[in-house]
Every structure is written in C-alpha cells, then in structure tokens.
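Reopening this one. Same input as before:
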Amino acid sequence: MARLSAYFLPMPQTFYGGQAVIEGVMMRGPSAAAVAVRNRQGTIVVRREDLSSPTRRVASLPFVRGLVQLREMLVLGTRMLLYSAAVQAGTSDQEMPRGVLVIVMISSLAFALGLFFVLPLLVARGPLPAPVEGVVRLAIFLGYLALIRRFPRVRRVFQYHGAEHKTINAFEAGAALTPAHVQSFSTAHTRCGTAFLLWVVVLSAIAFSVVNPPSLVLAIVARIILIPLIAAIGYEMLRLGTRYYGVPAVRLLVQPSLWLQSLTTAEPDDDQVETAIVALRAVLADGVSVR
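Same output, byte for byte:
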C-alpha cells in the first residue's frame, strides 16, 4: 500500500487555471475570474468578475464539471479575450455589446466544428476507411497549431500561455510568486487546455468510429450531439492523468499532451510572467497563503 501511495499525487484543494489573451493572462479561481492585460503604455490593467453561484455549485460534479469548463472556454474565455483586445485598442472603458460577444462565439464555434469535425468527416467518407477520420482530425489539429505558431502575434499569446503555466506550477509548488522564482518552472502543465483538446480528439476518434451513420447529414448531427459528452469524459481523463501522474503507465499516456504543449507555449519574459502573477493574485481565494 505504501508503495502505491508513492504514485498517488495529492490534488490541489482548489483548482486555479486560465488562458492566455492578447498581451495578458486570464486566471480563474473557484469563485472569480480575472484578466490582467499590459496596455500600450506598459501598465497592467486588471478586470475581475465573480462567477455565478450555479457555476460554483456544479463545477465540482464529475462529468458536469467538464461541461462547465467547456462553457467557460467559450463564454468567459471569449469575453476576456475581447476585453484584452479592447485594452490594446484603448477602448476598454466602453462596455462590450452583447451582440459582438455572441457573434464572435458563434463564428469561433462554427470555424472549430467545420475544421476539426466536418472536414475530417468529408475526407474519411471518400474511399478511405472510417478510422482514418480520427487520423485526419489529429493531423489537422497538429498542422493548425504548427501553422498559427509562426505568426508573431500568436507566438506572443503562446508566451503568455507559458507564463500562465509557469505561474500555476509555481503556486502549486508553494514557491514565491515573483518573476525570478516563477521563471524556474516549466511551461507545461498536466491540466492544460491543450491536453484537454488532445483528449477530445482521441476520444472522438473512438466515438465516431462506433457512431457513424451512413447519411452525411446524420453523421454531422451525431458529431455535434456527442461533442459535449466527449468533452465531459475528456475532462475526467485529464483530471485522472494529473492525479495518477506518478504511475508510470499513466505518465506514458499523459506525455504526448505535454509534448504537444511545446506547440502552444513559449518561454515568456519577466514582464509576461509578472502579468500572469497579477492575474492569479486577483482570484486567489481568501485565506490562501502565498509568498
């Protein structure tokens, strides 16, 4: 038993995480989210907002929490991203019209569904066997990340992504939240959204091989319907991978997602790390001790 316990990694009592935005980082805690953005004058601007009570109540339920994360990636993430763009444009003091948020969300969702789900389906429904759809989806996913990484502005976002991971790693290790200490930590994290997306890609390959109606329209509908379920399962796999990372077999399964993060993160500078630290401090729960 003692030997098995050595492989069991204690999970944090409270999960903190986030995402990179334009010249900044968004961090999410149990009851609040905050985005820290460095404006053109070099000043860090912070916006904090409380999360709704229903979100907090269901966020800890297995499988449901995966759907909550998916919702927040779409709604909260998009809202914070648009705010960071407004800071860069100097219009952050103006309220973002709700219609703009809805349009951006629908456009982003339609693009993702078309590129990562419909296109692989169309390719696989030719003379190729059905399991090839999963391979095509993975190839498109990797190719897309490798392509956008080449753009300087996207690479800066990936640097902030690296800063977010370093800050969370430092916090969970109990290190001092200063750029000098945070910089010593890795840009990879087992709970990264990139790892979550990889699980979705892998699980979708299995699910769509089983549920594959002959009608193209029904096949597209089936994929759209199954995405929330796949996301919920993928999130649980992500948590299990983090919890049992000390088990060699689990570490082997998780390793590809850590390698993949080399495409979505980059080494940040001290200013970017400082921005991530400010965002995290803004959402730390009362009573959380940090240095």
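So the earlier flakiness isn't reproducible anymore. For the record, The radius of gyration is 20 Å.
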